[in-house]
TrEMBL record:
Localisation per UniProt entry: Secreted, Cell wall
Membrane spanning residue stretches: none
DUF7151 domain sequence ranges: 24-67
One Pfam family in the UniProt entry: DUF7151
Protein's name in the database: DUF7151 domain-containing protein
Lineage: Bacteria, Pseudomonadati, Myxococcota, Myxococcia, Myxococcales
Main location: secreted
Keywords: Cell wall, Glycoprotein, Secreted, Signal
One GO term describing the cellular component: cell envelope
Length: 569
């Protein structure tokens, strides 16, 4: 029992007094309906009668609505014909066809509502035939609209004769409706409020737990990024009127089955920066993205069912192209792509050909990694310049060749189990920095490259059946030569044209019997010849005595055939 004692009076018993319940409020989403035509928010208030700290539905005593602005309703399009005495193009009488939206809804086309007109000279107004029809998103307006097709029915048969009765089309375009700033679609109400908007002057982000279909037929421009990401239920995306976006991203939408942006290839969607399609396991086709023409980057990664990628509008990618981990992807088509910062194709298990990149002339970096269905030749037939090329971890290719390649800084060919030859190169190819031929278990031929006379670094390692380096016989200058673990290599005599090297390392080549570097005059910084079981150690010592000028501590000769004799020089 709660009681108070004051001023000598008897205790006050407050047992029967109940404290007032605290007032609570909450804001909930209001779906489009009677309270808010376009949806909005509902502010609900009441008393927490059960004392649980939350406002239950039964405790709500008052609701106030904050409604979103309803989209403007599209006025119907009307047309009319009227005779006139003359027009700027008709010197005599004429009939004018006029069309426009019935903005005031009075069912008649008023003078102030006329948006388009055409004068038929010397035409009887009773012979003008016209029809009001929808104008597609890729038509004259650049977004959905209405058109009026008309002709003069000269023979009065009610049918247009194409050879003698010319067709005239008037376009009545919908007025632009702009959303200023970013917009987030998280619910059906958010999507409903966006209907009719033609331009978003910010980012448009679609991320929802419940939305299943995203359709915005009138949206034409997104000045920021269009991001459709992390939508748990989204299955279909349709944006037929889209003409421009800074970037387009479809990322981690587990139920997405179709995506269509833009109307047709004849009306490309200009994407100022990036197209990113990542982690959409049910998306089987990218045909609906074929209208997109990104300028900076294309990244298509980890989409389990995608079988083809075609972007005919792409001409240059300032950052690059990345297509990786798409196990069903069979073909690429970039018929107009001329240059890219990088081209990276990796772990696409079904990719059969690089023919779709045949227009590429220059890249900074080309990576072809683990494409088991690619074969029998890995090549970009028109590539002329690259900073680096890496061809690695393939099990199907038999040869590597770039017939138009004139210069590359780094050429790395490694760990290709079935590769038999490096051939089909341009005869004047220059490799300016590094040539790495490593881990190619079936490689037996490196075709002669007469233009290859100097390098910084040559590494020939773990090529089990390679017997000869004759394709590199034009080399004169090297900074570093490394020859390791080549099981069948017997001699380095093909490199007899070499004159100077900074560092020499020849190790663990079990069948190497001779060095044969007869033209060599100087090794400046390090000399290592080790563990070549068939190589007379005295040959290594003799060569070192003749050419090595570096620190004694960097001269290592051991583990070779110490018992084998050397003939006098």
């Amino acid at each position: 029992m709660l009681s108070f004692v004051a001023g000598g009076c008897a205790p006050l018993d407050l047992t029967g007094v109940t404290p007032r319940a605290p007032a609570l409020s909450r804001i909930v989403e209001e779906a489009p309906g009677a309270a808010c035509e376009a949806g909005g928010s509902a502010l609900q208030t009441g008393l927490d009668l059960d004392g649980d700290g939350t406002l239950a539905d039964s405790e709500v005593t008052r609701t106030e609505y904050v409604c979103d602005k309803a989209p403007a309703r599209s006025a119907s399009v009307l047309a009319r014909v009227r005779p006139v005495n003359a027009t700027p193009v008709c010197y005599a009488t004429a009939t004018v066809l006029e069309a426009g939206a019935d903005a005031n809804g009075n069912g008649a086309l008023d003078d102030a509502e006329v948006q388009a007109s055409h004068a038929f000279c010397n035409a009887d107004s009773t012979r003008i035939r016209y029809a009001v029809q929808p104008e597609p998103a890729d038509g004259r307006c650049g977004r959905p609209g209405t058109k009026v097709d008309a002709y003069v029915d000269l023979d009065g048969d009610g049918q247009r004769t194409p050879d003698t009765e010319d067709l005239v089309t008037l376009a009545v375009c919908q007025a632009s409706r702009v959303h200023d700033g970013d917009y987030v679609v998280a619910s059906a109400a958010d999507l409903a409020a966006l209907q009719g908007v033609t331009r978003v002057e910010g980012n448009l982000v679609v991320t929802s737990e419940t939305l299943t279909d995203l359709a915005l037929p009138e949206l034409a421009v997104v000045l920021g990024a269009l991001r459709i990401e992390n939508n748990a239920a989204l299955a279909h995306v349709t944006l037929p009127g889209l003409r421009f976006a800074r970037s387009v991203e479809l990322i981690y939408n587990p139920l997405l089955e179709t995506a269509s942006l833009g109307a047709s290839a004849a009306s490309p969607v200009f994407v100022d920066e990036d197209l990113i399609v990542t982690g959409n396991p049910l998306l089987a086709s990218l045909d609906g993205l074929g209208t997109l023409a990104p300028r900076r980057k294309v990244s298509v990664v980890n989409n389990a069912r995608v079988e083809a990628l075609s972007l005919p509008g792409v001409t240059h990618l300032h950052e690059g192209l990345s297509v990786q981990e798409n196990p069903a992807l069979r073909s690429l088509s970039f018929p107009e792509l001329r240059s890219a910062g990088y081209v990276s194709l990796a772990h696409d298990a079904s990719l059969e050909s690089l023919a779709g990149l045949s227009a590429v002339r220059s890249v900074e970096s080309l990576l072809l990694i683990d494409l088991p269905a690619l074969g029998p030749r890995a090549a970009l037939d028109n590539l002329q310049y690259a900073q680096s090329i890496s061809v690695a971890e393939h099990t199907g290719i038999k040869s590597v060749g770039f017939p138009q390649l004139l210069r590359v800084d780094v050429l790395d060919i490694r760990d290709n189990a079935s590769l038999e030859s490096v051939s089909g190169m341009h005869p004047m190819l220059r490799v300016t920095t590094s040539l790495l031929i490593t881990g190619n278990g079936s490689l037996h031929t490196v075709e002669y490259l007469p233009g290859l006379t100097s390098l910084d670094y040559l590494d020939v390692t773990r090529n089990a059946v390679l017997t000869d380096l004759g394709g590199l016989r034009g080399l004169v200058l090297l900074k570093s030569l490394s020859v390791h673990q080549n099981g069948q290599l017997q001699t380095l005599a093909s490199l007899s044209g070499l004159r100077e090297i900074d560092g020499l390392a020849v190790t663990s080549n079990p069948n190497l019997q001779a060095l044969g570097l007869e033209g060599l005059t100087r090794v400046a910084s390090s000399f290592t010849v080790q563990n070549n079981l068939a190589l007379p150690e005295c040959l290594a010592g003799r060569l070192a005595d003749r050419v090595y000028t570096g620190p004694p501590a960097q001269r290592t000769i051991s583990g070779n055939d110490a018992a084998a004799p050397c003939t006098p020089p």
